[in-house]
Amino acid sequence: MAELRWNPLIKDWVMIASHRQNRPQMPKDWCPFCPGSGKVPDNFTVYKYDNDFPALSQDPPKPDDVETRLYKTKPSYGKCEVILYSPEHTVTLPELPVDHIRELVDLWTERFVEISKDENIKYVFIFENRGDVVGVTMPHPHGQIYGYSVIPKKIELELDSCREHKEETGRCLICDMIEDEKQSGDRIIFENDDFVVFLPFYCEYPYGIYIAAKRHIQNLTEMTDKEKNSLAKTLKEAAGTLDSLFDYAFPYMMCMYQNPVNGEDTSEYYHFHIAFYPPMRSADKVKFNASSETGAWAHCNPTAPEEKAKELRAAHEKFLKKTDK
Prior knowledge:
By secondary structure, the chain is an alpha+beta fold. The protein contains six helices and twelve strands. Helix 1 packs across helix 4 and helix 4 packs across helix 6. The model has no long low-confidence stretch (mean pLDDT 95).
């Protein structure tokens, strides 16, 4: 079974993909993403791999005959890709050289453009799940890209808020957020010419850092060559900062927010940013999304962002000293 089902309570589509339950457990001594597996080239730096068990496809099956006057279905149309960060099985993002990560940025950009050519795709979502605690079963360094046929609810809410702010003030909401964070200063982790890395005022996770472009741009394709190099360096330092907190590969969900495609022009009010959602509140304690967060979307951060920002600034300095050696 693979289809989209309508939730009338929150006006959102849910991906039903029961076939993914049959994904095999990979043997410990074999990885399909490693050279020599027969699944990928013997030589690559970064590589696009079509997901073997996609939740969405460009040739989806017909939905089951289960619609009612309330419950709607539609085909699970879309695209699911895996982006391999390196041929090395155990390397992590902050361990890669900046010029290697720049190739990753270029591949993300290429895939954003290519997936957007399908007029049925409305949103291209680039993300990475890292660590057992977030359900990763393949340790080989990789991220994913989903091309959705509908704009997901969270993105829809962000777009609405950004549009309203633009109509009310004439300014970009995220540009204004960056200005507020820089004026406050106590939640900034680090910044460079092109990006600012900060723990937001409203941070939902203790170490949930954001990366925001200083220039008002919507997506990767609008970045200059210098900005792409800068993004590669910023990503290395941001992930390295998290790893340096407690000296282990810190689990996270990294999500890249860009403009929708094949629809309304959002260039005046939407703004490129990346959010990390690390599900740890200390070295060995998980911050679970429990009833309040899951059932009511009422998040509770058990820490003060200003205090955690101090920890993150120290971890950033620690990472820089380590990489300078």
